[in-house]
């Protein structure tokens, strides 16, 4: 879908990205890199329909003449609709020659994360004037082993029902909520074994999937 936004606000976010200094090997750094502003030049230039029609005349003549106009452009991927449930999937493999190699290093992630620096300034389901889009961690999937074999385990927080989250899922409404992590007990689940664990144990895991529920 092509939209014609105001060029002055097209690349603006709910919160100032310039104030961010994301620590490397953190989920904030991953999100910052994923949503960074890119310049498309040379072989990555954008095919511009408007420029092509202006240069070649009516659209019905363009294909026959095969004259296309490419132009430099800016590209940025931002969140336009904040989801009730945020699922972050970390890429845990990299190319090593002709083989795939698992990435085992620890990626830091918080109990509460603010998506505002990664949301468009006109995010559809964020109330006007809000500069925070907060999420609380409630689940983690961890993989141990190699690319060929291994074992999946999970960390899940047992907590009270989040009425605010229910409103978001059922009615799409967003109201003010607490900015603290949702209170509850964490459990580690491995096959049929379930045991309580501390939040520090959860935050030290090598996350493969992260699950957050929206607070604000």
From TrEMBL:
<protein>
    <submittedName>
        <fullName>UBP16 hydrolase</fullName>
    </submittedName>
</protein>
<keyword id="KW-0378">Hydrolase</keyword>
<feature type="domain" description="USP">
    <location>
        <begin position="1"/>
        <end position="215"/>
    </location>
</feature>
<dbReference type="GO" id="GO:0005829">
    <property type="term" value="C:cytosol"/>
</dbReference>
<dbReference type="InterPro" id="IPR038765">
    <property type="entry name" value="Papain-like_cys_pep_sf"/>
</dbReference>
<dbReference type="Pfam" id="PF00443">
    <property type="entry name" value="UCH"/>
</dbReference>
<dbReference type="GO" id="GO:0005634">
    <property type="term" value="C:nucleus"/>
</dbReference>
<dbReference type="InterPro" id="IPR028889">
    <property type="entry name" value="USP"/>
</dbReference>
<dbReference type="InterPro" id="IPR018200">
    <property type="entry name" value="USP_CS"/>
</dbReference>
<dbReference type="GO" id="GO:0016579">
    <property type="term" value="P:protein deubiquitination"/>
</dbReference>
<dbReference type="InterPro" id="IPR001394">
    <property type="entry name" value="Peptidase_C19_UCH"/>
</dbReference>
<dbReference type="InterPro" id="IPR050164">
    <property type="entry name" value="Peptidase_C19"/>
</dbReference>
<dbReference type="GO" id="GO:0004843">
    <property type="term" value="F:cysteine-type deubiquitinase activity"/>
</dbReference>
